[in-house]
Each structure stands twice: as structure tokens, then as C-alpha cells.
Amino acid sequence: MADVNIDVENFEGQKKVADDLQFQDIPHDSFVNDKSKVQTHTFTDFPPTAESDEEDVYDKTQLINDESKTGSPSFWTFEYYQQFFDVETKQVLRRIAGSMVPSPWSNYLQTTIRPNPDLYGPFWICTTLVFTTAIAGNMASYLSVEGKDFTWKYDFHKVTFAATAIFSYWWLLPAILFGFLWWRGSKANYTFLEILCIYGYSLSIYIPISILWVVQFEWLQWILVMVGAVMSGGVLVITLWPAVKDDTKKTAWIVIILIFLCHTSLAVGFKLYFFNAAAPQISTQTSSAPVITKFPTTPHPTSKQQNKKTLVAATNTTRSRLKNSTLKRNRVIYKTTKKPM
Length: 341
Hints:
Blueprint: H1 8-20, H2 29-33, H3 50-70, H4 78-82, H5 89-98, H6 108-113, H7 120-145, H8 157-184, H9 192-202, H10 206-212, H11 218-244, H12 249-274, H13 303-337
Helix pairs in contact: 7-8, 7-9, 7-10, 8-9, 11-12
Subcellular location: Golgi apparatus membrane; Membrane
Organism: Magallana gigas (Pacific oyster)
GO molecular function: small GTPase binding
């Protein structure tokens, strides 16, 4: 058998240490009653968490919404005009397509513009139309004189004229129409912004037409004028008819006809001013040698001078004849009165 040695002294020492580590009940009343010896610490600053960040964002959003509800932005602030340009690209494209195709069964304003009329699309449509009309007009002028003995010069005044005509039409016509509807007490409740938006999008059809006007065929240019005026003008007439139909029949028809005629006049003005064949003005035939012009030493008499000389010659002839006849008569008288010696 194997011998087993047990260290009794070491075992008894470990048992004694374990007995000393036992938990003991300590009375706390003495410490609680003595408040001067009590020391406490209150935590006030806690590290940020994801939940607290979300709460801060929510609070800021609520604060912004509350401020927007309390009052509208001022007329002189950027935020006031920002609301007129709050539109998506899909909406702009849809409004451009709707302004080119008149539909008697749907109102362009109610189905496409409301409830968010914008100025973003109309502004860029007018700006694009200014440059396409001016550039295409100069190109048409160049093509009309190409191959002839005349030089061509770019006309920068066309840009200024196009900008003045287009932006004046976009602002003045809606302002006049809105003032008329307000004066007549229209019940359609068309706002000035809505009318401005309708007129701005109605000009979009003239952008591709202005490019096609470069083609030097007179009949094609006039067909494009009629197509653009009828299609976009038809959208204007159908859209604005509910605003005037409650008025007298005569007044309503006069207003609608004037709206269509003004829209057609704009297209006709584009054609006549920008895309008519320009008459050549400056000759390209130049010579490096000096041009010497020889004048006659004796100038050719004019008709008045010739008449004067003829009259003088006739007068002299008459005088000489009278003189001769007088001399002959005097001789005859002298001979008859002379007595013989």
C-alpha cells in the first residue's frame, strides 16, 4: 500500500483563515444618525446615447415646425421666394407636356398645376426661349445671305429684344388678366401665381419651334407658327374659360378671343422679326488698289442750263433779225426822200 502523508498543521491554518473571512453584521444606525459623517454624490452629467440624439433631433424638428406655424416668412426674406421654387423635376416635365396638348375634358390648372403652382419651370422656360430665339434668329439670318456677295454680322440686339418681349408677355398679360378678374368679381378664385404659372408653361412649345424656324422654307415657318399658337393657345383658352364664363356672354368671348390673339401675335412677331430673310447690307468686294475716278474737265450742262442757252440764242437771233429789218426799212425811206440835185 502507498503511504499517504497529510499535513495537518497546514490544513488547520487554512481553516483558521477561512473562519476569519466570514461576513459579519455591522449596525448602520450609528452612521445614519450622524449626518455630518454621511457623504453622498449626485451624478448630473451623463454620456450621450443614441436615444438622446434622436430626442434632440425630434425636439429641433418640432421647434422649426412650431415657428413655421406661428407666422409666414417676410416678403423680403429668401424663405418667402423659396416656396415658389419647391417643385420636383417630374412635376415640371409633366406640366410642360400638359401645356402643349389641349384637352377639352380636363382643366390644365386643376389637374396639373394645383395645389402647388411654381415659378421654377416658367422662369427657365422663358430664359431658354430668349436664347434659342435669338441664336436661331441669327442663324436664320446667316443662312439667308450665305453664298452671296455680302458679309454677315451677328445681331446682339436680338437677345435684348427677345428678353424684353418674352418676360413682358409673361408678367404683363397675367397681371392684366388678374386685375380684370378681380374687377369683375370672378368666382373661379384664380390666384395671380396660378395665372403666372399657366402663362409661363404655355411658352414652352415655342422652344422647339424656334429651333425649327431656322429651316429656310417660308411655308414651313408659317405652319409652325399656326401649330404653336393653336396648341398652346388652346390650352390657355380651355384653362382660363372657367374664370370668365360666369360673366356676360359677350364679355367672356371678347376676353377669350383677346387671350388667343395675344398669344398668336407673339408667335407671329417671332417669325417676322427674328426669322425673316434679312436684306444684305454690306458688300464684300474690296480691292487693294486705290480707286481713281476721272472727272471731265468740262461739266455736262444740265437741262436748265441747256434751256437757258437755247433761250439766249433765240433772243439774239430775233434781235439780229429785227435789226436787219430796221436797217432795210431805213434805207428804203432814205432813198424815197432823197431829192435829185
